[in-house]
Amino acid sequence: QVQLVESGGGLVQTGGSLRLSCAASGRTVSINAMGWYRQAPGKQRELVAAVTSGGNIDYAESVKGRFTISRDNTKNTVHLQMNSLKPEDTAVYYCHARVPIPTLLGRYDDYWGQGTQVTVAS
Fold this sequence. Notes:
Helices cover 0% and strands 57% of the residues. By secondary structure, it is mainly beta. The strands form two sheets. Strands 2, 4, 5, 6, 9, 10 and 11 form a seven-stranded mixed sheet that branches. A four-stranded antiparallel sheet has the order 1-3-8-7, with no helix packed on it. Strand 5 and strand 6 form a beta hairpin. The N and C termini lie far apart (40 Å).
């Protein structure tokens, strides 16, 4: 299986920066994609950024130009550099990994980290 551990969250002022990190362990060779989701109070969990093993990247429209996701496949880590932070970025950020299920074509399992709090003060 896969275990995910996030770090790097904290409190920052509007316009500041934070760098989140996620370390994967276990059956990391099976991971197809890794990414970051966030959930703010009163909102559903949403995709922030994701990167596949092939290097394809997807960002939420609200973070394009401000956030950058990077993945190191050899170290099984993924990072999220967050710049120009806004109060609306305040949320719990979760690391995510997608693992295909060998016995079910086109199906996969989702693995989640424990979450790290990001608070942007206005």
